[in-house]
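Pasting as-is:
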Amino acid sequence: MPKSTLRANIDAACNFIEQGLVPGKRSIIGIAGPPASGKTTLAESIVERFNATQTDIVPKCSLVSMDGYHLDNPSLKEIGLFAKKGAPETFNVEGFCRAVKRLSNTNSVAFYPGFDRDLDQTIDNAVAVHPKTPIIIVEGNYLLLNISPWNVLKKMFSSTIFLGVERHILEQRLHQRWATYGLDPRVAEQRILLNDMVNAELVFNDSQTADLYLR
C-alpha cells in the first residue's frame, strides 16, 4: 500500500472510530479484508496513532489478531489441511469467537495469542488487553464472512471496516510475501493460485457489508 494511501486510510479509519466512541464504553472495531490487503499494517498503524497521544500508562488502543487462532502446523498436517493453511477451516474459529466475545468484558486483564510469521506459529498469551483500554482493534480475513460459524462475529463488533484491494495487486503482494519467506517460486505460484486467491475470492464474495469501506 503506497504511503499516501496508507496515511489516508489511517486518517479515515481513526476519524471513523473516534466518531463512534461512547464515553465509558469499550469500542471493538473489526478490520476485515482478503489476504495481503494490508489489514495488519493498517491495524497496527491505527493502534500506534491512538496510543501516540495517550498520556496514561493504560493503552488507549490494543490489537487482537485472528492469526493468533491458526491451528498449529502438526495439527494441520494430521488432519490433511497443512497445504490449505490460511483457509477458514484452518483456524480455531470457535476459540476465536469466544475470544472476541470476551473482549466486551472489562473487569480484568485478558490475554490473547499472537502469531509469529517468521516462526510460522502462534505465541500463547502474547497480547495483554487492559480492562480500561477503550478501543480494541480486531483484524482478520474472515471477520465479516457470512458463513457459519463466522457469521456470528459481526454483531460482536461496535463497527467494522473492510479493506479492499484489486486482485492483481493482491497477487503481486503475495508473490513478494512468499519470496521474502524463501518459498520456491513454483511452489509459491501454486499456493497463491490454489489457496491464497481462493480465500481472497471467498472474502470478496461472501463477506457481510462493513460500516466503512477503504481501498
